[in-house]
Design a protein that fits this description.
InterPro entries: N2O_reductase_NosL, TAT_signal. This is Nitrous oxide reductase accessory protein NosL. The longest helix is centred in the N-terminal third of the chain and has 23 residues, at about 10-30. The strands form two sheets. The chain has a four-stranded antiparallel sheet with strand order 2-1-3-4. The protein starts with 9 loop residues before the first helix and ends in a 17-residue tail after the last helix. It contains five helices and seven strands; from the N terminus they run H-E-E-H-H-E-E-E-E-H-E-H. By secondary structure, it is of the alpha+beta class. It has a domain at about 60-65 and about 80-200.
Length: about 220
Amino acid sequence: MHALQQPPTRRQALLAGLAGMGALVAAAAWKLSPPDAAPVATGQPLPDDVCVVAPPTPFDPTSGLPLDAPRAIPPDARCPVCGMYPARSAQWAAQAIFANGDAHFFDSPLSLFQYLANVGQYSPGRTAQDLVARYVTDTETGAWIAANTAMYVDGSSARGPMRAGNLSAFASAEAARRFAGQRGGRVIAFGNVDGAVLERLAPGRSLAHSAHPPPLAK
């Protein structure tokens, strides 16, 4: 004759419940990131299904700067396109400023152009027409220069934060040609950085989220 099974104590029932919850959490974590999934390497673009929270940096009226002037990159600012921290690659950084003074910072000119190609995707409710200024970093001097008047070298051996050609920027065509003569590539103006260039530099990412992407802002 088998001994009567004693009902579990309240403590035992609580521990069993916690163990069950732990198993469910572990299963969910495995489903989201299975053991054999390759981790995202540092400096690589995030998967398309990863949401990057990159709020704009508001204008500081006590800074003494005009609202549309280029500003220093906050250490905690994140690129709204790839999620990287532009302050860590300041020699490649770019920025865009809205009419209300809000600013977004980018890890490279490439990310800035991706953003301009579809502002509404990265900043819902806003458009490229809401921007009052766009800047890139001069590869030669490290100074901020207007993105729309800069000259870019496409296809050089220089590798930016994403370990790819990131459209090295220059204040003059002469400086850009000199750089291209040393590092290769072709010199192009702001208006020639079109969807085809972006797709070649960032395959499947630049315009993939828009079936009918708008033209780049001039």
